[in-house]
Amino acid sequence: MPIPPLIIPEIPLPFSSPPPRADSPQLREHALAWAQRYGLIGRRGAHRLSTTALLDLGMALCGQAPTHKAETLVCWYLWALILDDRIDDGPWAENGVLERFVTAVQAITENDCVDPPHEIGRFDDPMLSVLVDDLWSRTRSWGNERWRHRVVQHLLRHLRAQAMLVKMRGTGTAITLAEYLPLRRDSFGALFFFDLIDAAEMLDPYEHSDTIEWWSTLREHAADIITWTNDIHSIAKDVVCGERFNLVSVLADTHGTDWPASIETALQMVNTAVATFTQTATRPPHHRASAAADPERLRHIARAAGDWHGSVSRYHLHTIDATGQINRQVNLEFIPPTLKSRQFEIDPYPLYKRLRTTLPIVYDEPTDVWLVSRYADAKAALTHSGTSSNNYSWQIGPLLGHTIVAMDGCEHAQHRALLSPSFRSKALTALEASVISVSTDLLAQMQGRRQVDLIADFTSVLPVRVMARALGLPAETPEEVARLKNWCAIGFAYMGNYRQDPTLLTGGLSNRDSFYDFIQPHIDARRTVPTDDLISHLLAARVDGQPLSEGFVRAYCAILMTAGSETSHGALANLVVNLLNEPGVKEAVMADPDLMDNALAETLRRNPPLQLILREARESLELPSGTIPCGATLACLIGSANRDPDQFTDPDTFNILRPHQETNHFAFGAGRHFCLGSLLARMEITIGARLLLQTFPNVRWAPGFQPVEHGFLNRSPHRLEVAL
């Protein structure tokens, strides 16, 4: 039954707004430079924060703080904003990761020395590193020991409450209103920021012991007003994303009421909290309170937060109309699932169906990307002369610089012409021999074993060793293969970091440096004594009569190594699943090995390892189902397009004999940037799968094992336990 439109009420808080700060541009610039310097955000994140109102609340919180402390306060706000996104956007916080993060924060902040003790060490996570190296060291001296204890405890309560909510989401735990309210107050973190604001303004509202209870009560009321206001404004987003921990949702579950009634109850709770705050503020303790304990400061903060939650696009998705005004009536049918939703990791196909049916071209605000889900639209977008690969300037530009993947026009054609001969005709014949040799070796190592994991022992190793041989890099020992696999996995994760996770941003850069250190001696050796490998060919190549720069050569090695292994591994793993899962397919292929090509084509259509391709619109794009505005980033959801019923009969079914006219899929892309190594990938996968079945004709799933696809950008099983 369709959900009726929600009416999101205006919440006019009867408080005055904080006065604007003249140094707001300086605060914004400082925070963005700081976050990029420490790897908390990348180019895309910086652009988003510099062109939207996302940082405005952080600047409004600065009150009367001097500029140098206001800069630190905005950095704290941005740190918390990034952490909130990491927790909400997907799998990062699960499986104990957030709990370990909280433990590390506790170790950093409860240490009372300027220099952290040795056992704290360095952190792989840049959000922890920046606490040690900069943020906490800048902040800890703002107040006395009593203040430090208070701010640390409120920070830890904030983080532990978020960890508790993550755990409850994972277990499907129900929550009562009485349980939710204090947990939500802590998880939002308002009390922690009140502490920071006090110190930034060099005020101590707790200097008189008689006012402590009164002021703490006022702060809790203000925190509730801010938190509940946020919940009301974000209810549409939370409903679409499946977020149960929202005041409106909890009220609906607790009282058994519908959305309009629950929203009205939540609004009444906000109004009651405002009235209670106002009443409490007019009855301070009998003695004269300090100027620091001024309720007007809290009113300013609550009003600034309420205005921000009521206007920023992050909470309203598609509720802003053509005039730029907030549309209070929200039709949930027309709010898309966001790519940041955990459900895309688990099973994207029901979401694809909804997009194709209802929202074939739609803007996904959390990722700042237009989603293109139908086959006709994806084909038009990927082949349109008005689309560009400039999106790679932020996807991998900071990692590898300007490379072929980000090129367009003549420049792209020139560089593609350099590489194409290495994956065609005679070169492909040599690569075929390598594929057979590596496959045979890997399968021989399985002989005599009753059970193996084909991911660990075959599908992930084969393409790494083949591409390493093509480049002229060593990849024979388990240690060499493991090192290359790790580099490739991290590099691919960096390229697909559409959630812009800080660990992937910084980890990708250190991973690149490690890979470059590894390949540099091989480049130097080929420069002196060329051989018949890709590194030597790259060194001999010329564009406009000039050799490729050292940076180009290293970047191409990284691209070829990564692109030539990760997606091929995923496609081979998905093919194995279909061979063993689909009735009669394995037997048909063994009886007629030529059918392996059909099996792979159908796997790439129905189960493509790469689920989306990004592009940028350099002009307004008129696609069959709608318009993409000029300058927008668009995500061609090839996992959706490949299952479009308007193009494919019974698209969710694996059909090894699918008619030829229905075999055109987008697993290798389309248009000018069609996958350069597609012939190698097809050959590698089909030969590997054929030899697997020839060597182990009785291969089957291990007892009790069933494969499960994981991931979104790169979707395939993590394990393939088989009996031989």
Mean pLDDT: 90
Tell me the overall shape.
Answer: globular
Tell me the CATH superfamily of the largest domain: Farnesyl Diphosphate Synthase
CATH topology of the largest domain: Farnesyl Diphosphate Synthase
Distance between the termini: 49 Å
Please describe the biggest sheet, giving its number of strands, its sense, and whether it closes into a barrel: 5 strands, mixed
| Overall number of strands | 16
CATH architecture of the largest domain: Orthogonal Bundle
CATH class of the largest domain: Mainly Alpha
Looking across the biggest beta sheet, what order are the strands in?
3-4-12-9-5
Helix content: 55-70%
Unreliable segments (pLDDT under 50, ≥5 consecutive)? 116-121, 319-324
Beta percentage is: 5-15%
Oligomer: single chain
Specify Rg, calculated over alpha carbons: 28 Å
**Domains counted in the coordinates: how many?**
2
Family: Belongs to the cytochrome P450 family.
Protein name: Cytochrome
Organism: Pseudomonas canadensis
InterPro entries: Cyt_P450, Cyt_P450_B, Cyt_P450_CS, Cyt_P450_sf, Isoprenoid_synthase_dom_sf, Terpene_cyclase-like_2
